[in-house]
Write a structure and sequence with these properties.
The chain is an alpha/beta fold. Helices cover 41% and strands 11% of the residues. The chain folds into three domains: 63 residues, Arc Repressor Mutant, subunit A (Orthogonal Bundle), CATH 1.10.10; 54 residues; 161 residues, 2-Layer Sandwich (Nucleotidyltransferase, domain 5), CATH 3.30.420.10.
């Protein structure tokens, strides 16, 4: 029979009585047949904090211990029902972390993200590959060569240092970051709202400034009223930034060279888009309908940064826009 190592209410009253007569933790442990570390931990964790120091009160200590036990996370087994839920959500492009946290929030049984990953790896070894639904396949790193053109050719640039502080706080809708993504036979123009993580994605044939301007004008047309600022890198594709900014009546700022962390929201979204559009993907074979499908999918997926709300809900909060 397994010996119960936890203290009960009666034992806590014993400890309180022994403390009042001046016994040490070691002496109390000997009298009660417990290890002295058990008594030490009990007094350390469950004593009441007062101005005159810690005071051990049995009723208070038992209350704390009971509440702690209630809060303790219950073990969830990887049952068939949990497995079916994992497979269904993974196929809808949810990450293991999203699955675990959203299920917890909705009081649904679910295992930890690491357990989900291990389950997916076991499935793959058994011949069922669900890992293809995971976020991104990182391409091999390579040493960066100093082969980029002089990026100071862009005229009338406003540095990110002059950007209002409210943009840094990410507390309002309408502060966007913009970038381009390379693929086979074309590029993607990606625009991300800093607060809501709402994405706008457009396909463009080249990286020429004129093509980027054309794609930008068409892509942001439904959202112009919500736009306040745009932050980009120093790529020459944004050489016509002034015309683009005037077109939507926003302020345009440029991040420091090779400081992608200053546009972290957009960089992260680009990584998520790579789950669907690889560098080797032929954009000539990707329809506009598919691009909009990917955009809708990302905007309707709960995100940790916004407390697992959907970007589209946060972006359109208190708005009557229909997208």
């Amino acid at each position: 029979m397994k010996k119960n190592k936890h203290l009960n209410k009666e034992q806590r009253y014993q400890i309180e009585a022994y403390i009042k007569v001046g016994l040490t933790d070691k002496e109390i442990a000997t009298k009660m047949g417990k290890h002295r570390s058990t008594i030490y931990r009990e007094r350390t964790r469950n004593s009441k904090r007062t101005k005159n120091g810690n005071v051990y009160i049995a009723s208070f200590a038992h209350h704390l211990a009971t509440k702690r036990k209630e809060r303790k996370r219950k073990h969830v087994s990887l049952t068939d029902k949990v497995k079916r839920r994992i497979r269904w959500l993974i196929k809808h492009y949810w990450s293991p972390e999203q699955i675990a946290d959203v299920c917890k929030k909705r009081l649904l049984k679910m295992v930890s993200p690491e357990t989900i990953y291990q389950y997916l790896y076991r499935l793959k070894r058994a011949g069922t590959d669900l890992c293809k639904y995971l976020r991104r396949g990182h391409r091999r790193r390579r040493k960066r060569a100093n082969k980029y053109k002089n990026r100071s050719l862009i005229k009338d640039k406003t540095s990110i240092e002059q950007r209002p502080e409210v943009v840094d706080k990410q507390e309002r809708i309408g502060d966007f970051e913009i970038d381009t993504m390379k693929a086979k036979n074309g590029y993607l123009l990606t625009i991300t709202d800093r607060k809501s993580l709402f994405n706008i994605i457009a396909k463009t044939a080249s990286k020429k400034a004129a093509d980027i301007q054309s794609a930008f004008s068409k892509a942001v047309k439904p959202y112009v009223k919500r736009m306040k600022t745009i932050t980009s890198d120093n790529g020459l594709e944004f050489a016509k930034h002034k015309k683009m900014a005037d077109e939507v009546n926003v302020d345009w700022y440029f991040a420091h060279t090779y400081s992608s962390f200053e546009r972290g929201c957009n960089e992260n979204q680009n990584g998520l888009i790579r789950q669907f559009i690889k560098r080797s993907t032929d954009l000539n074979k990707v329809s506009e309908q598919r691009i909009q499908q990917i955009q809708k999918m990302l905007n309707n997926r709960p995100r940790k940064k916004i407390e697992y709300c959907k970007p589209i809900h946060v972006f359109l909060e208190n708005e009557s826009l229909h997208l």
